[in-house]
Write a sequence for this structure.
């Protein structure tokens, strides 16, 4: 059945045409503003040969060159050039070496040593290691960390990797989305990381037996029993304190760049960028090792953060001091299944001393 458009709805057509014309006008204006020649002519008027000779000679002045910390120069930003040199010569190569180097080391370690399996058979009795709240917090922080790491690597190297392959249009759209994700998820990650660090602080206080754990390489050096470890072993504590130091530095430096409206100078944001990049690259590399050990590298480790429970054998071999404190709380798999069926939820989390 044919329908006709009411006469009173025809006013939408001229308004749509007007909006189209206005949008085209704004597009042309934006393109004109983006023209490098016009921008240069506007930003640096009346620059003649004498002025450039003064600049090249190193003469300082409000209109020539500035080595001051304030961003009140016009032509040459020497601090910005220092930042560019640091980024291109040191920070970017460091990121590639750290991340790719860690991937290569993990691959070689897996091929040469293989997965660390349990020395004894599983008992089938389980100990609660991570309650639901901590697991939820961990997986949320881990997911945000991975997203921030991927988008951060894209911001650092995406231009060199994706632009030549896919072209300017794809690269520009991808970078726009990358910046949006990175800038908005960063503060959320910072808040949740601080909450998680506070929640796990009591279990990550360094102890004397942690030195012996490092001396034995977490059980990889020498033969015999595993080195002593409480609720958290020496490696887990090292990762915790890296997050509590370098991680906080990355968060703070990221907030400095994320919120330029608080009055920080350009020079402050430049050094925040250096700190942010170096810390983020380092943490990403170490996180790859943490992910490997907690998943493919060690039998039984992933189960604890997936279900909350670990087998007695795993607890005894990897965290013997904690096991001695909570071994009387072990429950059978049948009892756990009954608990799930009756929707009783998690038991209170055992704590280390």
């Amino acid at each position: 059945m044919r329908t006709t458009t009411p006469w009173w709805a025809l006013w939408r057509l001229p308004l749509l045409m007007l909006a189209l014309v206005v949008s085209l006008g704004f597009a042309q204006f934006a393109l004109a503003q983006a023209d490098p020649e016009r921008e240069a002519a506007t930003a640096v008027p009346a620059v003649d040969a004498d002025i450039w000779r003064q600049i090249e000679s190193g003469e300082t002045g409000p209109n020539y060159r500035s080595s001051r910390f304030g961003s009140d120069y016009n032509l040459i930003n020497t601090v910005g050039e220092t930042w560019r040199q640091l980024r291109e010569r040191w920070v970017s190569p460091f990121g590639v070496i750290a991340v790719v180097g860690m991937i290569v080391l993990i691959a070689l370690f897996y091929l040469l040593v293989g997965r660390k399996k349990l020395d004894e058979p599983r008992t089938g009795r389980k100990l609660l290691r991570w309650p639901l709240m901590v697991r939820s917090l961990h997986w949320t922080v881990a997911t945000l960390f991975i997203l921030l790491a991927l988008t951060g690597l894209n911001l650092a190297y995406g231009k060199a990797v994706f632009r030549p392959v896919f072209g300017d249009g794809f690269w520009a759209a991808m970078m726009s989305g990358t910046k949006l994700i990175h800038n908005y998820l960063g503060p959320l990650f910072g808040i949740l990381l601080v909450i998680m660090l506070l929640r796990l602080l009591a279990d990550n206080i360094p102890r004397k037996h942690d030195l012996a754990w490092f001396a034995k390489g977490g059980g990889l050096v020498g033969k015999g029993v595993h080195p002593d470890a409480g609720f958290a072993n020496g490696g887990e504590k090292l990762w915790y304190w890296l997050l509590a130091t370098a991680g906080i530095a990355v968060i703070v430096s990221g907030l400095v760049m994320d919120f330029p409206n608080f009055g920080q100078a350009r020079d402050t944001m430049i050094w925040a960028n250096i700190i942010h990049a170096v810390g983020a690259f380092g943490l990403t590399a170490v996180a790859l090792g943490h992910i490997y050990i907690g998943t493919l590298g060690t039998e039984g480790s992933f189960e604890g953060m997936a279900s909350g429970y670990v087998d007695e054998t795993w607890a005894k071999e990897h965290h013997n001091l904690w096991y001695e404190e909570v071994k009387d709380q072990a429950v059978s798999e049948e009892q756990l299944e009954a608990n799930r069926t009756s929707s009783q939820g998690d038991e209170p989390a055992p704590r280390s001393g």
Remarks:
- The longest strand covers residues 125-128.
- The chain has two domains: 36-66, 78-341.
- Confidence is low (pLDDT under 50) at residues 1-11, 24-34, 64-69, 349-353.
